[in-house]
Structure formats: C-alpha cells, structure tokens
Design brief:
Layout lengths: L1 E5 L4 E5 L8 E2 L8 E6 L2 E8 L6 H10 L3 H13 L4 E3 L21 H4 L11 H11 L1
Antiparallel strand pairs: 1-2, 1-6, 2-5, 3-4, 4-5
Length: 136
C-alpha cells in the first residue's frame, strides 16, 4: 500500500494495488471529498481531499469495499505526518484467534500461550544480583 499527501493541493492518495491504469471510478463515497478508482473491477486507489477533516470517509470506503479500516487509517496518518513524500506500508493480515479452545496457533510455544500463573518461573538470580550491587 502506498500513500502520499500533497500539502499544496491538500489531497491524499492511497494506492491499494499496483495498476498500470485505472478502469474508472466506483460510485463516490462523497462527491466533494472522496473518490475511489477501480482496476479490474476492484478498488485500486482512494483520493481524499482535505484529509485532516475527512478521515471518517475512509471508514465508509472500508465498510463498503471490504477493506481493512485500520490499515487505511494507518496509511493516511503516515502520509499526513510525512507530506509531499511517498509512504509505503506492508500490512499483514489481521491475526485471527484460534478456532478451537486448547489448540495453539502454529509456531507459538505453549508456554507463551499459558496464563502468567501457569508459566514456568524464570531464574532471576542474576538480575537480583545486579540490582543489589546498584543499591550499594
């Protein structure tokens, strides 16, 4: 995902996918402030005018088009913090809780999933010795 805030135009552009060209525009979220461009019949770019005052329109785009609202907001915030530069984000999919109770997700040690009271105690002797020396 790429985002860019043009400070002079006060416009935010968020590229959702790399596309050679856009096929057209989807129905506007807001005629004045938010437009969504399509490529291969899916959302490819979001244009937002006066982004500081209209970030909530990204939530409406996300809901309508099935996009990650948090990722859109994160891209927008990053671009607003670094105006007139391209910001690139690599957004991983949201993690899902395990479907079955008692089943751990892959590659996660069981001790990390246990409650604090169930975790094995670690030896803190070395740390205590350092703290003891620091008090003197």
């Amino acid at each position: 995902m790429r985002a860019e805030h043009d400070r002079e135009a006060d416009a935010l552009s968020i590229d959702l996918v790399q596309a050679e060209h856009w096929d057209g525009a989807d129905e506007p979220i807001d005629d004045s402030y938010c437009q969504v461009a399509l490529a291969d019949r899916r959302s490819a770019n979001i244009e937002l005018l006066n982004p500081e005052g209209h970030l909530e329109l990204l939530d409406r785009v996300a809901e309508r088009d099935g996009l990650d609202r948090q990722a859109l907001r994160g891209a927008a915030r990053a671009a607003l913090e670094a105006p007139d530069r391209v910001v690139e984000l690599d957004v991983s999919p949201a993690t899902q809780p395990c479907a079955l109770i008692g089943r751990s997700p892959p590659n996660v040690p069981a001790e990390r999933l246990a409650l604090p009271s169930q975790r094995p105690r670690r030896r803190l002797g070395h740390c205590r010795a350092i703290r003891h020396r620091a008090r003197r």
